[in-house]
Amino acid sequence: MRCLVALILTVLIVTPEVEAKTLPDKFLGTFKLERDENFDEYLKARASGKPDRYDMENLTTKKDTHHKDWALGEEFQDEALDSTQHKITFDLKDPNTLTETHIKVDDPTDVETYEYRRDGDYLVMKMSWKGVSTSRYYKKQ
């Protein structure tokens, strides 16, 4: 029995490793999409994704939020900046104002609405809480 175990170990040690394909370094890293050409039309032609569905990321120093696969006017539940579950609805207040309304699941009386407007090359997000207001400016890339 010892002879058999030694033989198997020897075979495993001596067997050369199979060469794996390696992705060249030039394809590694973080890339930010700068532009595309005719991509929406391409997706429509392929019938990819769901029409009129959106994803949104809000990256902050405190916490990042990622709301995926939502539609205007449809409520969904997700984790918010305060790490609690919220019922969230994105909608158009008027042709120039997108709203994002949050209702805390554990306290439905706690409602907060963020407003987004375009100002030139910027998307301006306005929000306030207990008398403290802020505006965040996102430059269109």
From TrEMBL:
Signal peptide: 1-20
Lipid metabolism found in the keyword field: no
GO-annotated molecular function: lipid binding
Annotated keywords: Lipid-binding, Signal, Transport
Family annotation (CDD domains): FABP (cd00742)
InterPro entries: Calycin (IPR012674), Fatty_acid-bd (IPR000463), Lbp1-4 (IPR040094)
Gene3D superfamilies: 2.40.128.20
Coiled-coil annotated spans: none
Domain of life: Eukaryota
Protein family (similarity comment): Belongs to the calycin superfamily. Fatty-acid binding protein (FABP) family.
PANTHER family noted in UniProt: FATTY ACID-BINDING PROTEIN HOMOLOG 1-RELATED, FATTY ACID-BINDING PROTEIN HOMOLOG 1-RELATED-RELATED
Name of the protein: Fatty acid-binding protein
